[in-house]
Write a structure and sequence with these properties.
This protein has helices spanning 11-21, 68-80, 90-100, 116-131, 148-151, 155-158, 190-207, 233-243, 298-305, 319-334, 337-358, 387-399, 424-445, 464-474, and strands at residues 37-41, 44-47, 52-55, 109-113, 135-139, 170-173, 212-218, 247-251, 278-281, 292-296, 362-368, 371-379, 384-385, 402-403, 405-407, 413-416. The strands form three sheets. The chain has a seven-stranded mixed sheet with strand order 4-10-9-8-7-5-6, sandwiched between helices. By secondary structure, the protein is of the alpha/beta class. Strand 15 and strand 16 form a beta hairpin.
């Protein structure tokens, strides 16, 4: 280990202590053979034996694991001072100024907090205080955080609790998914069609004597399966929601800070004429340091203050967090990470598009910048989710020292959200391995490759125990928490290894 550091426990001892002292609902990646990661650098992670893994999923280490400039900024400020934001400090106001400069002008007031969940919870408080309304419109498969208020508005989570789990003040609109949703790519205007669904919900809610406080949406759904809303959808939804006295909350916790490449924020993909009322951010904001932020308008902030209830956060906006936040913004600019996201993302999408032409298992490729999804299917016409095949593939990639995840309501969408320093060589390497594995799966299951595949080609799972495991993993179409990617299912859920040529 570098710097004379040594591991205190063996991997087995670490796992045993975790099982003893950590709550059983706190899952690990690759449950049948979890990784013990002891250090990381750039887009690579290293286990206790020194094995190097290419990280394709860690959108928290936004500018790269252990970035020296971020570490230096944190260490320098920690040596001087860390305290709460009730004292004046230049780091707080400097960071607020730099951060809001990346946003439309009317989004000018910041509340600094410590996690994406805390940010979204505060956003709900701001929205409900603004006009005194209570109800919230959310999207199918949405995930906004782990605190109680956010479980309530996250179908990805609350659907696990049963059919009666949705609260009466929560209304669920169709996900604007043009591949699997109600209105698809052949619809003449899917943006308007999906927005009309929100309008109907508003009208029904008002007819029942209720009032809308907010519409909340991830600017691009991640846990929901890497869904990119059609351009124009947010504008129309915002129009309907504001007319009803509500506000539009854009959740950028997973997709902000230049990940889409040509824009700093994913909501900007909708066009310059769309500006949310509240934006929440987290994960990449501190490159792994726990910090987050809510940015809103002066009017909404003044309404929140008029309640008479003081808002205070012990750690939110502390000098060390703000120093780290400033460093992250500087690295994004100095290293042209937005440009890298565009160049590498386009290259990755091109490589994956070639796989779609070649492999019947690949139903859809979607993404922008370094936010990319690969929707695996058993039948391209029926778009039948290939859940077990996706799980098998990510385990096989782990054996190849590549970390990728599968998510979405059916756990069949491969998710790329790597650190922003991801390279073209990394993209080529990963897609080459995926190509080989898809070929092996298709050969083992009798699927034809190429454009002449039969329309009803099916990737079969034949043994009863394997079929039961696959059914169990998809029995709840909204799955488990967003952290529950990669290997939270029994090993037997994967495509039977005896039928895979490896």
């Amino acid at each position: 280990m570098p710097g004379g550091m040594e591991e205190r426990y063996s991997k087995a001892e670490t796992l045993a202590l975790r099982n003893k002292h950590i709550g059983p609902s706190c899952k690990v990646f690759f449950a049948k053979d979890p990784l013990k990661i002891v250090r990381a650098q750039g887009q690579y992670m290293f286990d206790e034996t020194g094995e190097k893994y290419l990280d394709c999923i860690n959108n928290v280490a936004h500018v790269g694991h252990s970035h020296p400039y971020v570490i230096k900024a944190a260490t320098k400020q920690m040596e001087l001072l860390n305290t709460n934001s009730r004292f004046l400090h230049d780091n707080l106001v400097q960071y607020a100024q730099r951060l809001t400069a990346t946003l439309p002008e009317k989004l000018s007031v910041c509340y600094f907090v410590n996690s994406g969940s805390e940010a979204n919870d505060l956003a709900l408080r701001l929205a409900r205080q603004y006009h005194g309304h209570q109800d919230v419109i959310t999207l199918e498969n949405a995930y906004h955080g782990h605190v109680t208020s956010l479980i309530d508005i996250s179908p990805y989570k609350f659907n696990q609790l049963g059919k009666d789990s949705k609260k009466e003040f929560v209304h669920v609109a169709p996900s604007p998914d043009i591949y699997r949703g109600k209105y698809r790519e052949d619809h003449p205007d899917p943006a308007s069609a999906y927005a009309e669904e929100v309008k109907k919900i508003i009208e029904e809610t008002q007819n029942n004597g209720r009032k809308i406080a907010a519409f909340i949406a991830e600017s691009m759904q991640s846990c929901g399966g890497q869904v990119i809303p059609p351009v124009g959808y947010f504008q129309k939804v915002a129009e309907y929601v504001r007319a009803a006295g509500g506000v539009f909350i854009a959740d950028e916790v997973q997709v902000g800070f230049g990940r889409v490449g040509k824009h700093f924020w994913a909501f900007q993909l909708q066009g310059e004429d769309f500006v949310p009322d509240i934006v929440t951010m987290g994960k990449p904001i501190g490159n792994g340091h726990p910090m987050s932020c809510v940015v809103t308008t002066k009017e909404i902030a003044e309404s929140f203050g008029a309640s008479g209830l003081e808002y205070f956060n012990t750690f939110g906006g502390n000098p060390v967090s703000c120093a780290i936040g400033l460093a992250v913004l500087e690295v994004i600019e100095k290293e042209d990470l937005q440009g890298n996201a565009t160049r590498v993302g386009n290259y990755l999408l091109d490589l994956l598009a070639e796989q779609k032409e070649k492999h019947p298992l690949v139903g859809d490729i979607r993404g922008i910048g370094l936010f990319v999804g690969v929707d695996l299917v058993k039948d391209q016409q029926k778009r039948t989710p290939a859940t077990a095949e996706a799980l098998h593939l990510i385990y096989k990639l782990k054996e190849q020292k590549i970390l990728l995840s599968a998510d979405g309501p059916h756990r069949n969408v491969l998710k790329f959200k790597p650190p922003m320093c991801f390279t073209m060589e990394n993209a080529k390497h990963v897609v080459g391995k995926i190509d080989v594995l898809l070929t092996e799966i298709e050969a083992a299951t009798g699927m034809k490759t190429g454009n002449n595949m039969p329309a009803n080609a099916q990737c079969k799972i034949k043994t009863s125990s394997q079929a039961e495991s696959a059914n169990e993993s998809t029995s709840n179409t909204n799955g488990a928490a967003c952290r529950q990617e990669n290997g939270f299912y029994p090993e037997k859920c994967s495509v039977p290894s005896k039928r895979i040529i490896t």
